[in-house]
Amino acid sequence: MKRTIPLFTVTALLVALAAFWLVSTSRAATETPEYKVIRTDGKFEIRDYPALTVATTAMEGAEMNGGFRKLFRFITGSNEGSEKIAMTAPVLIDSTKDKKTMSFIMPKKAVEKGVPEPSGENVTLGKVPAARFAVLRFDGGRTTANEKVAIETLRARLDAEKVIEKSAPTFAYYDPPWIPTFMRRNEVMIRIGEAR
User: Fold this and answer.
1) Structural domains in the chain?
2) Is 53 in contact with 127 (CB distance < 8 Å)?
3) pTM
């Protein structure tokens, strides 16, 4: 007599496997920079970050894919040591009037060992100095409208608190594109100084 597995058991197993895959490929399994929270108020925080080593490349327009591919090739071996470097989160996007850049934060182990120099692809290594940032978490996907509202909201908060901006906004995107938009962690960050 042939024995069959109940549909419920098969469904539960598939859901468990999907959940494991989602978590193992998401930010839960990815190194993120350590920071000290100074103050929290809902989605708004003041944080102190240590100095970070980053790999950076220019973006073409608002398109993420070209910049992401260059940086991904760098961490998967397109470097002087042909070394693999672990992916971290978030992906940082700096935006000024003249240009946009994308950066990957280098993991602690790679920094301690010595990050290999990029080979080609217009990727450069640099440092983000230790600083205090005002940070606002926002929902949804990476769209111009979402980013504009996030910047306006954060700047209104800083203006109300009479806090001095010391940098252009930086966007921090923590999740891969297959994560549903309602589950994503997106942030806009502005380096700040003392209150006016």
Assistant:
1) 33-195 (3.20.80.10)
2) yes
3) 0.83
